[in-house]
Amino acid sequence: MSKKLKVLITGATGKSGSAAIDELLEMGNPVRAFVHSLDERSEKLAAKGVEVFAGDLHNFDEISVAMKGIDTAYFCFPVLVPGVLEATSYFAVAGKEAGLKGIVNMSQISARRDAKSHAAQDHWIGEQILNMTGIPITHLRPTFFDDWFLYIREGIKKDNKIVLPFGDGRWAPVDSGDLGRAVARIAAEPMTYAGEILKLYGPEEYNVYEMSEVLSSVLGRKIKYEPVNIERWAELDAERGADDHFLQHVTNVALDCMDGIFAGTNDTLGTIIGDKPTTLSEFFTTWKAAF
Ligand SMILES: NC(=O)c1ccc[n+]([C@@H]2O[C@H](COP(=O)([O-])OP(=O)(O)OC[C@H]3O[C@@H](n4cnc5c(N)ncnc54)[C@H](OP(=O)(O)O)[C@@H]3O)[C@@H](O)[C@H]2O)c1
Q1: d(CA 278, CA 75)
Q2: Ligand 1 atom with minimal separation from the 145 CA
Q3: Helix (H, G, I), strand (E, B) or coil at 262
Q4: What confidence score (pLDDT) does residue 284 get?
Q5: Ligand 1 and 190: CB distance under 6 A
Q6: Which helix (H) or strand (E) segment is 193 a member of?
């Protein structure tokens, strides 16, 4: 039997990164977790037997040291924080020096050369930077995560309303845990999808009116969708503490969503994880108490 690849997971305490680690441990692959802070989340990883490396993706020396002895790596940088291109460049150079056999890159479905969202355009440029390394790479371009509903859960709980700026836009919400499982599968067998850009969707496409019906049915009370325009959304988001970087991104991807950029579904995610992807109803059921 061939030796299992050792995988570096960045974003290791985040949603997809932590799910990737659980899957890799189950698969018997050794893991090094690149964590941003040493806290109770990193302690939980260490308790599972994961090698923990604390560092900042904006520090070239730290990511370089973290790559030593690593076979393949997952690049994941939060969309809320500016600086994805600096982090991507450091990761690319460090990965090339370390002789990585594969990279899985978390991008997004709205990533394209002419994206109006700076973060989405930066994801596209980041894909090009990583491609230049010559390392076998798989770019993941998921649609919106289910977790969006957790971001607005207070309004759902208090007012029985989903307030979002997505009009009648449609998408198939995808589970970040399923994405993590996909990251693990590809990082463990990096040639399977090498050179591919994978559009990843949840199993069912809806508009938010239909999503509110799914939530109402799970909760047993009526939850109404209240679409708001971009200006009103920006005000509400700023009240929640969102900064200009995030607002610039969200307001532009909301327009993308209404223009159909997020629409569609396929069975790629299910094929990669060898399982039925999580439905929106299952996600709402798991998080029922939060709503
Ligand atoms: N949400 C969506 O609907 C959606 C859709 C498509 C694509 N995506 C993409 O998904 C990615 C985010 O994935 P996710 O939601 O799984 O991640 P996440 O839950 O946002 O977690 C981000 C992780 O990165 C760590 N981190 C933050 N700043 C760092 C730094 N400077 N150096 C090292 N680590 C740092 C965080 O640690 P701390 O908490 O300790 O800072 C955290 O563990 C983004 O690239 C986004 O564009 C998201």
Answers
A1: 23
A2: 3
A3: coil
A4: 98
A5: no
A6: none
Cβ–ligand 1 contact at 185 (below 6 Å) = no
CA dihedral 151, 13, 111, 246 (to 10 degrees): 40
Q: At which residue do the structure tokens 């708001």 appear?
A: 228
Read off the DSSP letter of residue 261. T
pTM score over 0.85: yes
Domains along the chain with CATH numbers: 7-146+174-202+263-274 (3.40.50.720)
Closest of 103, 257, 247 to residue 187, by C-alpha? 103
Enumerate residue ranges in the chain where pLDDT < 50.
none
Instruction: State if residue 139 touches ligand 1 by the CB under 6 angstroms criterion.
Output: no
Nearest CA to ligand 1 atom 29: 36
pLDDT, tens digit, 9 for 90 and up, residues 125-148:
999 999 999 999 999 999 999 999
Q: With b meaning 16 or more CB within 10 Å and e meaning fewer, what string describes 136-150?
A: bbbbbbbbbbbbbbe
Work out which ligand 1 atom sits closest to the CA atom of 77: 45
Q: How many CA atoms does the CB half-sphere of 279 hold within 13 Å?
A: 9
How far is the CA of 156 from the CAs of 19, 257, 290, in angstroms?
26, 21, 9
Mention every residue, 6+ apart, whose C-beta is less than 8 A from residue 282.
Answer: none
